[in-house]
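Same chain as my last thread, 99 residues:
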Amino acid sequence: MTREEKKTLKFKNRMKRDSFKKDVLENNIDLHQTFFIQDQEIFSMRQTFTPQFNQQFQQAFQHYVQGNWPLAKKLLYKVHVMVLLISLATAPPGQGRAF
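reply #2:
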């Protein structure tokens, strides 16, 4: 790839990122839907969690994206505790997991 082609590609990628960022900031894109539902690998991975966990995570994620970081932090902490409890509950006896 020539230097000019690299430069053009870099410009096009930046334009795509800027367009995506604008859509996100204007609430034209649901990030939760885009990344956590439509991405089949992530969707499959999250199937092991309870609906309550997924709902709590979605709320925390939305507050984070909207810039409401104090509430997002509080909700993400609750999600983290849920993960710890699930991990401890599913660990073999005597092998509690630590994060």
